[in-house]
Amino acid sequence: MRRALALCLAVAGPVAAAPALDPADLSRLDRFDEAAGEGLLAALSGGAQGDLALLTEALSGRAGPPAPSGDWSCRTIRLGGVAPLAVFAPFACRIEITGPTEWRFEKLTGSERSRGVIALTEGRAIYRGAGFTGDAPAGDYADLPEGLGLSAPGETHRQVAVFEQTGPDAARLMFPFPVPGATFDILYLTR
């Protein structure tokens, strides 16, 4: 048994631990239910029928064990804020395994991109990433200053989300209070 464990660890190679969450991001995760509730109330009060149908699809299904490696189609569904509900066009995303309970995520296309790490943390899969627009540098979460939120186009900002995979071809990243003027974002992943 010990040999098997040693062999597995040797084959897996070194695993970089997910960066620690900054206090502002911990606060946003602590307020996850508040953000989801406010966002859903806004979406249901003024969202278009087709957008509400996609929102329902994105939120359907229970979270199962994550096995998300591969290429995905991903689209942002923004609940609350400037508009009650906004659905954006699909873009390309990729998730690659980096360790037994850790994956590298990247939104590859679109004007708003993101990259970071999904890691199991206290029983939940938490995304720590850097969002960026325009020609902004695509920094890593750990390298960005604490509390760095999106303030202008062309800048890089910290992102935090809860990841849930509801089936082999469906998953969601849920961002509480993702940017100023938004209450709750869902990045809906399908393949």
From TrEMBL:
Keyword Signal applies: yes
Annotated signal peptide: 1-17
This protein's UniProt keywords: Signal
Domain of life of the source: Bacteria
Matches recorded under InterPro entries: DUF4893
Pfam families: DUF4893
Protein name: DUF4893 domain-containing protein
